[in-house]
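Dear Dr. L.,

I hope this message finds you well. Following up on our conversation about the binding site, I have prepared a predicted three-dimensional model of the protein together with KG4. For your records, I am including the exact sequence and ligand specification that went into the calculation, followed by the structure tokens. Please feel free to forward this to your student if that is useful.
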Amino acid sequence: MLVLGIETSCDETGVALYHSEKGLLADALFSQIDLHRVYGGVVPELASRDHVKRTIPLIKQVLSEAKLTRNDIEAIAYTAGPGLVGALLVGASCAQAMAHALNIPSVGVHHMEGHLLAPMLEDNPPAFPFVALLVSGGHTQLVRVDGIGRYKLLGESIDDAAGEAFDKTAKLLGLRYPGGPEIAKLAEQGVAKRFKLPRPMTDRPGLDFSFSGLKTSTLTAWQKCIEANNASEQSKADLAHAFQAAVVDTLVIKCGRALQQEGLTRLVIAGGVSANQALRMALEKMLSHLNGQVFYARPRFCTDNGAMIAYAGCQRLLAGQKEGQAIGVKARWAMETLPAI
Ligand code: KG4
Ligand code: ZN
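The resulting structure of the complex is given below.
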């Protein structure tokens, strides 16, 4: 089955063609980062308008790259939530209109399920069951995964998501949006252990996270540098290093706990923050001690993309799931409510 995937939940327009037997045939992405950067974060109305401009040209691009025509498409998968409603509606309307015109089925995909299944696009994909750490701009969750749609939420952030903490902390340090890659780059020049930051909620049992206090501690440390006339580029790099180390340590501790609690040794990391090299290395180290394995997607498929939506949608379509003709999207949508296939 040849599936067209469309992702428009936030600030990237992602389109891909995935074939159930041949695999990924083409994928294309337009990132709106430059559009939103001047505002220091995503402006929802600008995001929607830009998706309108990009979606159809990107569909034409993937079809031409795969040397196919729209009549070859057998089904369409689109992100139906969670995300920005206006942005989601662009992809959903486009997908539903095309599905109607071509008389083919469509399916609305959960954005985080897309992220969760992205490592399945790589060689040596993880087998079920596994623990998944979902770390994006909007979500930080630990989930036990027994199959597609068989999700048990083990823990989540009670305030900021990990990616959000990277973005907000970067802004406080005067770095550009999105903050994750900027902090990661700066942290490479940083000296370890100069600043001591907390590892929130690791001193008590449980699998929930909290990142907003860490952001405040980082700001306080930076303000002290400014007061001491020591707000140099090196100080900023050292603080970026300390912040990243605190986030990584916290995530590693909670992943270890979740694996132990569930009696599992396979860990999947997905979402934008799973592109972080320091996080990958620290988790690999921990999993090697447990004789386990950590799985992740190539960096391009950690952040938002159309390939993960085409893949997740294809699995659900093959199981017989499809939408009616209504165009419905959800700003909030709990992944545990998805049907098992
Ligand atoms: O999954 P994603 O593309 O979008 C959402 O669904 O939210 O994740 C975007 C988030 C942003 O907060 C960004 O700063 C973060 O992922 N991110 C990173 C890295 N690359 C992207 N955070 C840390 N290190 C990175 N290398
Ligand atoms: Zn995402």
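In brief: The first strand starts at residue 2 and ends at 7.

With kind regards,
A. P.
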